[in-house]
Specification:
The radius of gyration is 26 Å and the shape is elongated. It has 4 domains: 29 residues; 70 residues, Dna Ligase, domain 1; 95 residues, no CATH class; 131 residues, no CATH class. Strand 5 and strand 6 form a beta hairpin. It is mainly alpha-helical and 349 residues long. 49% of the residues lie in helices and 9% in strands.
Length: 349
Amino acid sequence: MKKKIIIASVSVVLVILAIIIFFVGFYFGNLKPVNINDTNKVTFTVEAGTSIKQLIDNLDQQDLINNRYVGYIYVKINKVTNIQAGEYSLRKNMSLKEIMDIICNGRANIDTVTIQFIEGKRLTRYVSDITKKFDYTEQDILKVLDDTDFLNECINKYWFISDDIKNTKLYYPLEGYLFADTYTFYSNASIKDIIFKMLDTMATKLEPYRTQIEDSDLSVHEILTLASIIELEGNSKEDRATISQVFQKRLKIGMTLGSDVTTYYAAKKALSESLTQAELDACNNYNTRGTCVSGLPVGPIATPSLESIDAVFNPSATDYLYFVADSAGKVYFASDSTGHLNNVREHMN
């Protein structure tokens, strides 16, 4: 009899746990944005004297939140009482917390700014993009990005950032760390707000690779460095995976990467410009064409796409050691120097 009672008790406990897990998942799931991809503005008015319940009902009616009952629970748990009357510019890609923060702080009529950051570009390009939409100078932004206290804050805040970014040989500490995407910021966003949002996205994108990162012989800094070179050397997913294989094989046998794109970055030249022989041979911590860097350069040379980051973890199952690209961007691979020279003669003239 006691055994049956114990089994019954365990069953009840398991059912209760299952119910709790379901409701916790349901609750937090409904705190998320209604549509993460919808950036259209929705004008939402809060009349003077509006109650918390009326506010949640109105948000639900305008399809700005997922579930009004979850809304009731949220405001109860978070003791939300101070809502500000006014006309607000909201969006369906805002979470319930973001919406309530805006309304409780009375941030009515605060406009937003949208910036598209293109993958494969240098940090200086992103700085320029920000200055076009905000009243900050390039010097203002670079000063923050180079500030030791800010860099320490980033290291403490994000699991994927380490003291590697404080290497004084780096041109820009956070080069390669700001994930390229289309972002919507409040028009009064601080420089730190902007940078943190881009780092938040990088954290999200890297999370699925966290186990592979922890098991890798490369640090996150080195992974982003390699991915940034792959980004600029290849134009397709297939080519990037094979280029990743070439570079990782070279690293394994102690052969220089010999990548021109690192030399462009070292010389602070655009890829559309020409390199001199002196620049190709220059002893620089970024230049893998010279004799000073036998492995990876000191840091990333651009912002890698997710495709290039993935290529680091999933290189092609080939055995190439060389590659060259023609003027149209088509890449030709070879396993030995003879095949490589033949590719150069055939496709580079």
